[in-house]
Amino acid sequence: xxxxxxxxxxxxxxxxxxxxxxxxxxxxxxxxxxxxxxxxxxxxxxxxxxxxxxxxxxxxxxxxxxxxxxxxxxxxxxxxxxxxxxxxxxxxxxxxxxxxxxxxxxxxxxxxxxxxxxxxxxxxxxxxxxxxxxxxxxxxxxxxxxxxxxxxxxxxxxxxxxxxxxxxxxxxxxxxxxxxxxxxxxxxxxxxxxxxxxxxxxxxxxxxxxxxxxxxxxxxxxxxxxxxxxxxxxxxxxxxxxxxxxxxxxxxxxxxx
Length: 257
Fold this sequence. Notes:
- It contains eight helices and two strands, in the order H-H-H-H-E-H-H-E-H-H.
- About 75% of the residues lie in helices and about 0% in strands.
């Protein structure tokens, strides 16, 4: 089942890649966005964290930490795909974000968005655990990763933070504003890529739907933040959420499934 969900996620990456290439082919000056600070920060973060994740994966293997033998090759394949998608998506996402000119949220607003992100992330899963028995799928590659394997855990941490930036560039940086520019209402522009984002993260927990609902709620928060306060706000919220998930994996694993 996981493979089917990952295939949907792959098509979303492919869609962002195609949109990015078409936009650059139509207006080659978009390539100048690479020289702007937001592009250098976002792109640099993805590349540095991705490289760190792969190096830590190799170190983990050399240290004999064991774990799922398919974990490192799988992450390598995803990292290569992410970097290939990053090349055309980054300048388009940064250009559209600059064109929309959304103001950075005031401190109370950003704190409220962080609180909403954390509350939904924890409470939606906590309530699910009270209603049904939630467990990881046997196919889940990260099932046995934990602090007992520090290098492997650090590899996953770097990958999770790189994924936060990369996914915002794709889903809220390219796909959401692209749909808005096609005339779709805001709700549809947020929910369509948000649903793909949620289902693409699915299949890792049982029963089906628990994780997907959690991720869909987060996608709505991130999408609203992108629309009202720009791509940077969505990226920061996603980074904070993934950092929280990593923390919960250590202190409350049952909430971090």
